[in-house]
Design brief:
alpha/beta; three-stranded antiparallel β-sheet; 19 helices
Length: 467
């Protein structure tokens, strides 16, 4: 591009009547009024009064061709409009605009010489205008920061962002191993911001913010449970109870009430809000090396989680009764409803095994000899070239002779019959080893048509947990 740099007085620069920001203008007066009406010139002028004209970008202009010493602005019409009305507020046809810019003019200490890049023709400027405003140049175009990037910049500077609270909460959750990096990156920060804007939602979850940090009136472990559930709910569909990017105030209030009830947060309230402990004294990931950071995230004790089945574990279950049991098992806290969780756990295992026999092997079995049915399912999965190691925990349920093992079917039966009192940790320890096997079972079920719709001629299993 043939060009030169020079400073030109704002009064000697003309608006582009072909400015893509609006329909073609009839003349210079029409062009200015369109900019004043639709392009937020007031805010730009106020920023220029406070900080000056952006020194990192020049206007792109070309000779007018009709008026000596005059140039037409091809890039920077908004900046030019702000400078012109600061220099001469009477250019505004709207009296309120004139009054506003006259007030700003009194505070402006700069001049009206504008740094410009002068090109010979409109075509010489096309590429550079597209680089800044266009969308058809891919990575070559200026790429605007997304909401998270804006919030990250604010977190590291003295600036502010509307998403700063959400960013702080996401950062806390990641650094304290409540969510993974992948989950952190997928969560919609603007949806979290929308929910946190509700005072009633914040009150329900025991969350507040002071001096750019998080406060809570919940016991720390319960606060972490609430934060984890809140953030991960953003990854669920609205139909499955997830957060809605279009929620209204009533939706957010109801969601808060739901979490209070499901997580029993009312039982964990403390007298006042206090700062939540940071991951280290400065809460900066940059102050923790990679090895330390990985250790922090990897060493959270799984026995401390508040649900038998981890929240992030997902299954597609077409059988309505089993799906309801699965959802209930994922939602109740085994520390508070231990026996209910034990019943659901035992029922889920039994119904899952018989669902496999019915849908994949086309077999109808009576509700007895569960250990034999588990072996049958494991043998069939192994025949499909699934590695033995992935099935060892499933076999252990059926073959472990001692009741001291969490995987013993005898122990599970005793939970149900009331001869043994389970603990939340017992149930978590029983679930974790079989999680992958359960996933494999439902993967196979969902490959078959009968895993979704009962085929004609296949007798449906009469479900019902033997108690």
């Amino acid at each position: 591009m043939n060009s030169e740099k020079k400073s030109i007085s704002a009064k000697n620069i003309l608006f582009d009547t072909q400015n893509p920001r609006h329909d073609p203008s009839e003349d210079q007066v029409d062009a200015l009024q369109k900019l004043l009406k639709d392009e937020d010139i007031r805010s730009l002028a106020a920023d220029i009064v406070k900080h000056g004209v952006n020194p990192t970008e020049t206007l792109i202009v070309m000779p007018s061709g009709t008026e000596n010493n005059k140039h037409i602005v091809l890039e920077g019409n908004r900046r030019l409009a702000a400078l012109k009305v600061l220099q001469k507020p009477t250019l505004c046809l709207n009296k309120q605009d004139e009054k506003y810019f006259a007030s700003l003019k009194k505070k402006y200490s700069g001049d009206f010489l504008v740094p410009c890049t002068v090109v010979k023709t409109r075509k010489d400027a096309e590429h550079w205008i597209l680089i800044k405003h266009g969308t058809d140049l891919g990575g070559a175009s200026t790429k605007r920061w997304n909401a998270t990037q804006n919030a990250r910049f604010a977190d590291n500077t003295s600036t502010s962002s509307p998403n700063q609270r959400a960013y702080t909460l996401l950062k806390y959750a990641y650094e304290n191993a409540l969510i993974t990096k992948d989950q952190h990156d997928k969560i919609n920060i603007t949806t979290i911001t929308r929910y946190l804007s509700s005072p009633l939602l914040r009150k329900s979850l025991g969350i507040d913010f002071k001096n750019n940090w998080i406060q809570s009136n919940l016991q720390l472990s319960r606060f972490n449970d609430a934060v984890q559930r809140f953030l991960l709910d953003d990854l669920k569909s609205v139909e499955d109870g997830g957060l809605s990017s279009r929620s209204n105030a009533s939706d957010r209030e109801n969601y808060g009430h739901k979490l209070v009830a499901e997580l029993h947060l009312h039982e964990a309230r403390e007298k006042s809000y206090k700062d939540v402990p940071k991951i280290n004294s400065e809460n900066k990931m940059g102050n923790i090396n990679d090895e330390q950071s990985q250790s922090i995230r990897d060493n959270k004790n799984p026995n401390k989680r508040s649900k038998v089945i981890p929240y992030e574990f997902k299954l597609t279950i077409q059988k309505p009764k089993i799906k309801r049991i699965y959802d209930e098992l994922k939602s109740i806290d085994p520390k508070h409803y231990t026996n209910a969780a034990a019943f659901l756990f035992r029922g889920f295992i039994e119904l899952t095994i018989h669902y496999y026999l019915e849908s994949v092997l086309r077999r109808h079995e009576e509700q007895r000899d569960l250990h034999k049915h588990i072996i049958t399912v494991a043998d069939d999965l192994e025949s499909k070239e699934i590695h033995k190691k992935k099935l060892s925990s499933l076999r252990a349920i059926a073959t472990t002779p001692t009741q001291s093992s969490p995987l013993s079917i005898k122990l599970m039966n005793n939970y149900v019959h009331g001869t043994v009192e389970p603990s939340a940790t017992d149930l978590i320890l029983a679930w974790d080893p079989i999680q992958e096997a359960v996933r494999l079972i439902y993967d196979e079920i969902n490959k078959t048509p009968s895993g979704q719709t009962q085929q004609k001629g296949v007798r449906s299993l009469k479900t019902g947990v033997t108690l």
